Amino acid sequence: MWESVALTLAGAAGNSIGKVLQKKGTHILPPLSFKLKVIRGYALNRLWISGFLLDMCGAALMLTALSQAPVSVVQPIAGCGLAILCVFSHFYLKEVMNGLDWIAITMAGLGTIGVGVGGEEQKVEEIPLFSIPWLVLTVVILFVGSAQHLASYLQKAEARTRVDWT
């Protein structure tokens, strides 16, 4: 079950962050059309391609999770992708979030852990209570740390790849 939870979180993050990268990549591209120059521009835009590939990998991870766990477990956890998207948007898109937003993101992460714990019948010995704070800390570090690192890397890459399409 925990493997499915991790796959779902990774898939939701890939879908959400991939779409943001594709959207960000289109800011320097012309509207999509069947002109060869435009299609080549999309194909050569690293930011757009990175977003596309991340989105596809996220979809593959989500399908893998669905093959291993019931939809009633996978779908609520996939909703946590919005929390991941919020953290990523804060660091990459420089969106400002207030304290209530951060509380909501934390609750979404904790809810994901709760669904993972409660989604399958388990013995009490298998989940020691002292390990739950470590699990929560790990989720917070992964959400904030990886989003901040990815955002700074992508901002540097975007600055290097500015192209004039006129």
Automatic annotation (TrEMBL):
The keyword Nucleotidyltransferase does not apply. One of its GO terms (molecular function) is magnesium ion transmembrane transporter activity. SUPFAM superfamilies: Multidrug resistance efflux transporter EmrE. It is a multi-pass membrane protein. The keyword Cell membrane applies. One of its GO terms (cellular component) is early endosome. It is found in: Cell membrane; Early endosome; Membrane. The chain crosses the membrane at residues 47-67, 73-93, 100-119, 131-154. InterPro entries: EmrE-like (IPR037185), Mg_trans_NIPA (IPR008521). Keywords: Cell membrane, Endosome, Ion transport, Magnesium, Membrane, Transmembrane, Transmembrane helix, Transport. PANTHER family: MAGNESIUM TRANSPORTER NIPA9-RELATED, PTHR12570. Acts as a Mg(2+) transporter. Can also transport other divalent cations such as Fe(2+), Sr(2+), Ba(2+), Mn(2+) and Co(2+) but to a much less extent than Mg(2+). Belongs to the NIPA (TC 2.A.7) family. Homodimer. This is Probable magnesium transporter. It comes from Aegilops tauschii subsp. strangulata.
